[in-house]
DNA sequence: ATGAGGGCATAAGCTGGTCTTATGAGCGAG
DNA sequence: CTCGCTCATAAGACCAGCTTATGCCCTCAT
């Protein structure tokens, strides 16, 4: 439903109401450098082009963004706010780019990473951005699949470094824990659980039908193990995104990684329900073939993930 | 530094490597509808245009995104991953749009909202999206400022509903708590604190110079109160974004709302340091002039924020 | 079997936006 | 007073992406 309505709201298309990425980057440059001309130089266009671009952006948004003066340009109050929203769009685009770049360099690249879906979707783009910042020349490729697939790719030499999120380490691989991820119970804000005062007991959770990923997914494994194999599905969906959308629309409670619902929680499209009597932690691990300690770029990436 | 390097990495400009918003929306439509033609119809272009757009996107990314067949198109594995990254970009753009729209409708609009900076930046766009989904015709305007400014706007009748994040409710206003926000201590992953095993004592926190917002900001108030006015600044910056950037670059530890660092924590550009012996909770409140209970769209918005 | 319908691809031509170059004008510092 | 920085405006070139008009492929129903 949230999906459908977002769709509808978007009828006259976002792209017509939101400036394009180049314009947003230009705005960020103006904010940072304090001058249209300097910003233009940075993004590699001429000053008049920058001037016109900013102006048409202001026309499009119906708000003055910068105060122009003969000695530079500063953001207006509204401009500062818009710039922060723009920054979020640009950051998402940078993550997109980092991911896509890794996907493109599939063959013959220097560092081939295999990762489980959740990690590939939510964490890797950020790591790749950081890696790219430190070692701009490293070409990284990305293969995504479940734990078994990751293990296969590593053992067959088709990948150099893997990331898995299951409970166990596939045999033949060495691993190190790089982060702990907590699964949390979430509902739409309208759900009765969102109003309860007492924390939820594990038994209640086990008895309630939930919106879940399919059996065999990393998330489902952890939940089943924590509840003793009892998790009762209300709906089973095959992608994290679909589960989220379903939960947001109010179809029922769900259990998801806190990694993937950060935005939804902040925006209060979902609320987190405290649970007691059950440990929903899981480890995220970097893995590699036993004996083949990561070296070079793989080692670099690994150190970035652990900080 | 992260800033500067992102800059550098972006030299050949993101906009040239990331498809524009229209293309990303089209991709999402294809994913959802399973056909290029249907997706084209939904976004209001012809089928050949959609075909060409997707194709040039595949060329740009160097990856096949959809499997075309005479009976429809499905995403490839890589396409599914790319679509999820695209979705995040589009969501950020939708938040941008919701915010910008509210900023534009400054005058003569039906619902005028005044909010503190943090709330305006991180929460309001999401709420406005939700409000727009339920009441597409409501024009909302947004004014941002600190608590005092919000109070003024409400009392002078220039705003209908306010949101503040301080410890106290400005006099003359009624309030209701809509959410609890936790301040958390964060450092770059490389900082020594990121490796400590013991939780941090309040005294240690008070004795360590921190990267902070300026005195008078909501965040700083809460921290000063919690530590007994002792917070020691390493650097004082005037925007949350600047504080974040500084912390990410490793300049030192900082204390920030968990709202604003969700992404950074997920991407492990920052890590959270547990603290004991000090309560860093703060309430986010909706406020209105005493006696003037919110009605109509204001009431609607309020109910969305509380779920 | 055979035609209708939905799916996608290709080709040709037009349109519009956005860039560049060239120039002018305001303000401040030496 | 003039140099150097800022921004604005004007005119023309260019290119990306759209539409319209086709054609082929496959499936399903008659």
UniProtKB/TrEMBL annotation, chains A, B:
PROSITE patterns: HTH_LYSR
Keywords annotated in UniProt: DNA-binding, Transcription, Transcription regulation
InterPro entries xrefs: LysR_HTH_N (IPR000847), LysR_subst-bd (IPR005119), WH-like_DNA-bd_sf (IPR036388), WH_DNA-bd_sf (IPR036390)
Record-level Gene Ontology MF annotations: DNA-binding transcription factor activity; transcription cis-regulatory region binding
Record-annotated HTH lysR-type domain positions: 19-76
Pfam family of the protein (one): HTH_1
Superkingdom of origin: Bacteria
Coiled-coil region: none
Database matches in PANTHER family: HTH-TYPE TRANSCRIPTIONAL REGULATOR, HTH-TYPE TRANSCRIPTIONAL REGULATOR CYSL
Family note: Belongs to the LysR transcriptional regulatory family.
Protein name: LysR family transcriptional regulator
């Amino acid at each position: 439903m949230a999906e459908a309505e977002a769709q509808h709201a978007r009828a006259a298309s976002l792209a017509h109401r939101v400036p394009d990425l180049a314009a947003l980057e230009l705005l960020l440059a103006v904010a940072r450098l304090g001058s249209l001309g300097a910003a233009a130089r940075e993004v590699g266009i001429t000053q008049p082009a920058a001037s016109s671009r900013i102006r048409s952006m202001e026309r499009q948004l119906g708000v003055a963004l910068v105060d122009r003066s003969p000695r530079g340009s500063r953001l207006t109050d509204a401009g500062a706010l818009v710039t922060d929203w723009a920054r979020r769009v640009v950051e998402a685009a940078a993550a997109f780019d980092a991911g896509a770049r890794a996907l493109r360099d599939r063959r013959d690249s220097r560092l081939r990473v295999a990762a489980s879906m959740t990690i590939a979707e939510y964490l890797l783009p950020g790591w790749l951005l950081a890696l790219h910042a430190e070692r701009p020349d490293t070409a990284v490729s990305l293969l995504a699949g479940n734990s078994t697939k990751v293990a296969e790719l590593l053992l067959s030499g088709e990948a150099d470094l893997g990331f898995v999120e299951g409970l166990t380490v596939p045999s033949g691989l060495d691993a190190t824990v790089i982060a702990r991820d907590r699964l949390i119970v979430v509902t739409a804000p309208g759900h009765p659980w969102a109003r309860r005062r007492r924390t939820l007991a594990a038994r209640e959770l086990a008895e309630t039908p939930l919106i879940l990923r399919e059996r065999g997914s990393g998330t489902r494994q952890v939940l089943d193990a924590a509840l003793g194999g009892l998790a009762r599905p209300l709906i089973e969906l095959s992608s994290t995104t679909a589960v989220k959308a379903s939960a947001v629309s109010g179809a029922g409670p769900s259990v998801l990684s806190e990694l993937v619902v950060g935005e939804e929680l902040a925006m209060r499209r979902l609320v987190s329900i405290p649970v007691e009597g059950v440990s929903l932690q899981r480890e995220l691990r970097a893995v590699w073939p036993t004996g083949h300690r990561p070296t070079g770029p793989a080692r670099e990436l690994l150190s970035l993930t652990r900080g």
